[in-house]
Amino acid sequence: MNILLVNPPNCGRSIPEERYGIDSLKQIFRGEPLALEVVAAGLGDHAVTIVDLKADNADLEQSILQTRPDLIGFTAMTCEANTVKKLARQARNLCQATLVVGGIHASNVPQHFNEHPFDFIVIGLGKDSFSQLAAQLDQGQTPIPIPGIARVTPGQPLDWTPRQFAPCDQPIDAAPRYDLVERYRKDYFLAKLNVDLGFVVTAFGCPYNCSFCCIAGQCGGQYLSQPIEAVVRDLQRLSEIPFIRLVDANTFGSPVHAEKLCQAIRQAGIKKNYLIDVRADTVVRHPDLLQRWKEIGLRSVVIGFEEINDQRLATMNKQGTLALNDEALERLAELEITVVGDFIVDPDYDHADFDTLERYISSHKIDLPMLTIMTPLPGTPMYDRMKDQITESNLDYYTLTNAVTRTRLPEKEFYTRYANLLRACHAQAKL
Description:
Layout: E1 2-7, H1 15-20, H2 34-41, E2 47-52, H3 60-67, E3 71-75, H4 81-94, E4 98-102, H5 104-108, E5 120-122, H6 129-138, E6 149-151, E7 189-190, E8 195-201, E9 203-205, H7 216-219, E10 223-225, H8 228-237, E11 243-247, H9 255-268, E12 273-277, H10 280-285, H11 287-295, E13 298-306, H12 310-315, H13 322-335, E14 338-345, H14 351-363, E15 368-373, H15 381-386, H16 411-428
Parallel strand pairs: 1-2, 1-3, 3-4, 4-5, 8-11, 11-12, 12-13, 13-14, 14-15
Antiparallel strand pairs: 5-6, 7-8, 9-10
Helix pairs in contact: 3-4, 8-9, 14-16
């Protein structure tokens, strides 16, 4: 069977640009579609093609005409959901392939895609669910219920069985199909470091439940560490890529697993630089672990500081404090590990809040400050709490650079302060 997996193009709209002519300074990062590479790994003898519309300006029509697919799988984040619907309608006009949609938005809000022309929705981690669906379709069967797969039933509630995910001692999966994006490899780079960047998965899901985060929908709130042997294998397969992003909401979510992985990478003689995600409390509690990772190539960490106000942090269920964030920065400075610091700008900010955040960023060693705007993403606890306050429901604006709730400052003033702070952060960047 011919299978086409589609990574949607860079999309999403900008309120500050459209309404006020303010450059929102969005940075487009081109990273390989690892989720689709993982899904493709489970598709056995099927003829699989990945089209990455973020890296390639070619339209979907060309890919469909070339591959003549029997099955098309789309993935989508929230801000891509409407675009993927348009792509699916385009695909239906071109062919009669079975159309499937998955990804984090489908996992959190599957009802959003319960419409034609989609045939099935993958809910949660789809590497096994999608392969089972493909096998049934290939055999010409009328698909029987598969955990994690919902048949589209327009006008009616979806009916599906949640998938039960295996623990971390599961058998090693097939390697991600890195070969299917080889033609795009030159486009996967980290501009700030001017290096090619590869992705390797170390875990799925997250052991925490921050109210703004959508990751819980991936594995039903579980945290599944990837087998050590699989991570080492994937690092070795990307032998020509010098810089690796270890894809995991919290690379040290299991310190025991992280320690074993560090030892395995050292023993395998793998020489690379690493960018990982880590929590501030993990840095404070396990500085020796970070030191050992630095010895095998850890160069940079991404930390979600989110806020510099303890009350707002508590509202996010972040389980952190300003003092903890400060201590984590001190430890990372001692280790000489560069910091990508994520901060969330609340639409409720006034001028004093912007001033306080700017002073904090400029006075601390944060090598690359990143600023997003607090966005209640559908399917998150924050959305449930704030849905009555939402003033913009068009998902095209859910890019994390738009305020979809009312701003305390006049809207143009808010975006002007946000854009100016972004420029100051970019000027401060030292990576």
